[in-house]
Design goal:
This protein is of the alpha+beta class and about 200 residues long. It has one domain (about 45-195): 3-Layer(aba) Sandwich (Glutaredoxin), CATH 3.40.30. The chain has 5 helices and 11 strands; from the N terminus they run αβββββαβαβαββββα. The chain has helices spanning about 1-15, 75-90, 110-120, 135-145, 180-195; strands at about 30, 35-40, 45, 55, 65-70, 95-105, 130, 150, 160, 165, 175-180. The strands form 4 sheets. The chain has a 5-stranded mixed beta sheet with strand order 7-6-5-10-11. The chain has a two-stranded antiparallel sheet with strand order 1-2. Strand 3 (about 45) and strand 4 form a beta hairpin. The longest helix has 15 residues, at about 180-195. The two termini are about 35 Å apart. This is SCO family protein. Keywords: Copper. Belongs to the SCO1/2 family.
Length: about 200
């Protein structure tokens, strides 16, 4: 009888344990001594489509899905946008889930342009921020998120990733997901639910 009770206690302790440990912390670098150094994502000097400054303070305690785009993008951005609208809609009632899309074309993507682009998604601006900064700050953030971008040779497009980064409430990276692959979108959705729990 005592063994059965012990098994029940162990099941309750370990069975109810948060699954967030199953998502590794991926925001780290290897230092000169070969040791892993975990870092938190730092936001500064970004502005969203409502003209509000975006920094690490106002994303504190948020689960963030971050990606890079530009409003004139003729290639991967439109299908990415459709998938991100689906994700935003699924978590529309979760106050601690926030999408942040960073423009890589601040010359053309003014606050007004981002506002108009945002309105066509029909997602509240409290759930999905479209943000801009100068090229230096945007590239620095891309480095933190382990990605990059560059202009196409003819200037009509940018080379950039179709991946979204999942960031937890402590502003650590917990996963990378290719938004153009349905199975990856499902994995991202499940990972967000894990962090919520």
């Amino acid at each position: 009888m005592k063994i059965a009770q012990l098994l029940i206690v162990l099941f309750l302790v370990f069975g109810c344990k948060s699954n967030s440990e199953e998502l590794p912390i991926l925001s780290y670098k290897i230092n000169a001594e070969g040791e892993k150094e975990v870092y938190s994502i730092i936001y500064s000097d970004f502005t969203n489509q409502d003209g509000i400054e975006v920094n690490s303070t106002n994303i504190k305690d948020k689960i963030v899905i971050a990606n890079f785009f530009f409003t004139r993008c003729p290639s991967i951005c439109p299908p990415m946008r459709v998938k991100l609208i689906d994700i935003a809609t699924e978590f529309i009632n979760e106050d601690d889930v926030l999408l942040i899309s960073h423009t890589i074309d601040p010359k053309n993507d003014t606050v007004e342009v981002l506002k108009n682009y945002s309105e066509t998604t029909e997602i509240p601006t409290s759930k999905w921020w479209f943000v801009r900064s100068n090229e230096e700050h945007t590239k620095h953030l891309a480095e933190q998120l382990m990605t990059n971008f560059r202009p196409n040779e003819d200037g009509t497009d940018f080379y950039h990733s179709s991946y979204a980064t999942l960031i937890d409430k402590q502003q650590n990276i917990r996963g990378f997901y290719n938004i153009l692959i349905e199975e990856e979108v499902k994995r991202l959705t499940e990972a967000i639910k894990t962090l919520i729990d």
